[in-house]
Every structure is written in C-alpha cells, then in structure tokens.
C-alpha cells in the first residue's frame, strides 16, 4: 500500500514539472509564430484526377472513379482575364492536346466532299406498255433485276379487241382483191398494236384466231420494276414493266447551300464506293439542279458513270471528291475541321492566348465554304493565331468545369451537380437558339438510328453497325432542313459524312474511330434540339480515342461502352443530362 502511494506521488510530481517547461516555453514564443504556415498551405491545396478533372479534394488519395493517384490541381493565374483558363502540363500531355498556328495561304487546290447514291440513268430507262386492252394471262419475267433482251417474250395477254381484229383480217384477206382499202386498213390497225408483219402474215395464212397474244420487249436491259400480276386487266398504254439499261448510271449527290458556289457543270469528280474501296471512278458533273429543296436545304448534283461491267448497282452509297477553288481573295485562312465546335448557329474554336503557357480562351468565328478537312475563315481569327486542333472537346470540358465560356455555356458559370461516384451530372440550364419544330420532329428518327448504331457497337457487331449507319444516313437525307442556318446545316453535313464513313467499312476499329467523331457532332447539335419524350444522357469514357476521352449519347444512365464493348463494358460516367 505504501509503495502504491509513493508511485502515484512520483507520477504527479513528474507531470507538474513537464507541464511547467512546456507552457513556459510556449509563453516565451512570439504570438505571430504560433500560426503554422505549412499547415495552411496544405489545407489550401486542391487535389484532382488527371482523367477526371471534376474530382476536387483537399487531400491526396485515389480517384473515386478510376482509382488513379490524385495530383495537385493548377490554380489559374490572377493575370488571366475572366474568360481565360489554364490547363496543367500533365493534363495537356494525357489528353494529347495539340495546337496549330493559322496563317495566310491559298485556299485553292482543296477538295470538296459530297455523299450520294447510285441511281438508274433515267434517260436510258424504258417503259414496256400494253398496246391494247386485255387481261394478263401469264408473266414470263417474275422478278426485278432479271436481264431481258429486245424481242424477248415478257407476257401473254388475252384481248377481246385483238380477237375481233384478227377475225376482221381473216375476212378482209378474202376480199383484198375487191376491197383493197379495207384490207390495208385492217392490217394497219394490227400494226399500230405492234404486231409484226410476220405475225400478221401468219394469222392471214393460217386463218385461225390467236386468243392469247405475246408481249415482246422493245428494249434490252434490266427489269427494274414489275407493275402488273397475272390476272390483272390493263388498258391500252398501261405500263407493264420498267426496263433500265445500266450500261450507264447516275451518281446523285446532295450539296448544301454553302457549297453551291463551288460547283459547276463539267467539273471533274472522283467517286468511291464501299463495295470497291480500292477503285476510283472518274466522272464529270453533268447537271446541277436549279431549284433548292426548301425542306432539306440542298440541291441535287448529278454525274454520269460508265457501267459496262455492271459494278455499280442502283441504291449504292457513294462518296464524291472534287478539287475546288474557293471564290474568295487569293490569300485566305483555312480553319482545320477538327478545331471547330458547333452549337446552334455558333461555331467556336479555342485559341491559345499565350504561347509561353497553357492558357486558352473560347473564340466565336464565322466560316465560309467547306474545303478539304476544313473551312474558309470569314472572320474571328487572324493570321498567326494559335488554335487547338486536337483534343478540342477536352479543352471545352475543362472550360465548363472552370465556369468559363464554352461551347454550351456562352456566358460562363454553368451550374453542375454530381451523380454517382463524384461524376459530373451537369444539366444544361440554357438552351441554344432553337431550330424549327419540323426539323426537331424529323431529326428524332436520326437520333433513334444513332442509338441503334451505338447499341450495335456495344455488341461489337460490325454488320449491324453497317446496317444501322446506312439506315441513319437514309433518314438524315430526309430530315426537314427548312429554315436552318449555316451552323446547323454544317453540322448535318458532318453527320452525313461520318455516317457515310461508318457504312463504308466493315472494320470494327474504323467504325469506332468514326463513331468518336460522329458522337462529337451529336453532342454539339443536341442542345439545339428538344426531346420532349425523354432525357438524353451524355456519357463519357476517359480511355476512348487513344486515352483522350470521348462522349456518346444514350437513353439510359447505365454505362454500356460502345468504344470497347465487352472489353470495358462499364468504363465511363454520366457527364450531362440534355
């Protein structure tokens, strides 16, 4: 008991002595030294993920989305204006952001790209008609696409009028010595019904009436349409078959308003098809439609192609390329296509404001005619300006996250929320200039076809991808483009281009590569299009597009990655809700 009391006393005494020295030393220090600046610096640091810059944490660790180590976020310089922002060197390298200095140079000797289809040469299409009233007894041509020769029997017809005319001929033949005028009139009547001299002579000689009379082809070619069936009654002049001579065919292209000035009859055009990707067909523009289609805002441009070997089939999708010279001043600035972002009527680029650091600013520009991989600049930039030409969407996403002016945020300060594991779930609060209700209604079918294409890529089914892209392209050509202006029309033109590129390859890798570009355009155009039925989600995969990241659209929030399919099916996050 005494030992315990002694131990307690020693412990208390030791504590009093230690406390004296600690508080005595603290009291002797100046008050200003009691503040730990190191701690303050650590608290003010912001840690982010190089692949998911929306992650902002006050301490180091791992990204809650991809698990990568967080890095220190760059803080914008106070010297930057309210519309400028910076990107870290690490972010620039990971996103492979590249810039190009635009300058004066000839805008000539460029190529204009058009998409179109192969059609029958209407000048070489014949209609096989019936020359008398009657009933179709039998058809000898039963399917479209069958080759026929001139003089080949196509059908047999029972005609009461022809039966009567044959009887008149037999009677008149016995009276031709006494009534030659009557005999000649009866023969002429049969000749007008396209009976040959041989057939008339046979009827006259045999003295027998033929009930079912043959119909012979009067041209050679391919049966493109069968317009009757056995048992049908036809009138004199009724068309029975359409027969097309496919030794020559038409390549018919759609050209937009801003491309009209670049086209002229006699211009050389090089045509390619996905059926023969290594073969080029040379032709010249033979016709430019003088009337603009007010619904599609396009004109038809036609070229005649030789097709003696039958390689080109009506209905094929084709791409045309021609060398053009812009009707502008000699020295112009051409802005690369990859640099331009489109939203409603606005076209924007990101300009590097200081060549010595990674500071950027959005700049609205006005574009002219489309040329090879770019557009002629009308205003907005000057020779020597440095613009982003690779990773443009990544730069735009960074601008949105920093609340700066961006493609979908003309005034800055976009309001965002967070969904899931820290992923950005931004909802666009401000609609861009709206397009016409007619356009929105017709564009809905294109969006549906895009979703089918996306689902086919998720399944890694290249054949279904090809079919879906052809379906989308067909629907896109029927979209009502009336009242659209330059920016949206150019977006539609680019959608058409990428759908065409996807449909013309069976390589899943190439299809996905073009899907990146296609989706970029859909993300850009969607703010102008209302979808009253259900929301559209913008999903993002940071690994797509060679680790530069890419967005795609979906009806569902569930991640089903079209860029990798089963290999990385759930890689991605919800970026926006439109």
Question: How would you describe this protein?
Answer:
Helices cover 29% and strands 28% of the residues. The chain has twelve helices and 32 strands. The strands form nine sheets. Strands 3, 21, 22, 23, 24 and 25 form a six-stranded antiparallel sheet that branches. It has a six-stranded antiparallel beta barrel with strand order 6-15-18-17-16-19. A four-stranded antiparallel sheet has the order 7-14-12-9, with no helix packed on it. The longest helix is centred in the first third of the chain and has 27 residues, at 2-28. It is elongated, with a radius of gyration of 38 Å.
CA gyration radius, whole angstroms: 38 Å
Shape: elongated
The pLDDT mean sits at 78
Instruction: Please give the alpha-carbon distance between the first and last residues.
Output: 80 Å
Number of domains: 5
Low-confidence stretches: 26-43, 105-109, 413-433
State the secondary-structure class: alpha+beta
Helix content estimate: 25-40%
**How much of the polypeptide forms β-strand, as a percent range?**
25-35%
Count of helix runs: 12
Q: Based on DSSP secondary structure assignment, what is the total number of beta strands? A: 32
Largest sheet: 6 strands, antiparallel
Question: Keywords, please?
Answer:
578 residues, alpha+beta, conserved putative lor/sdh protein from methanococcus maripaludis s2 fold, Elongation Factor Tu (Ef-tu), domain 3, 5 domains, six-stranded antiparallel beta sheet, six-stranded antiparallel beta barrel, 12 helices, elongated
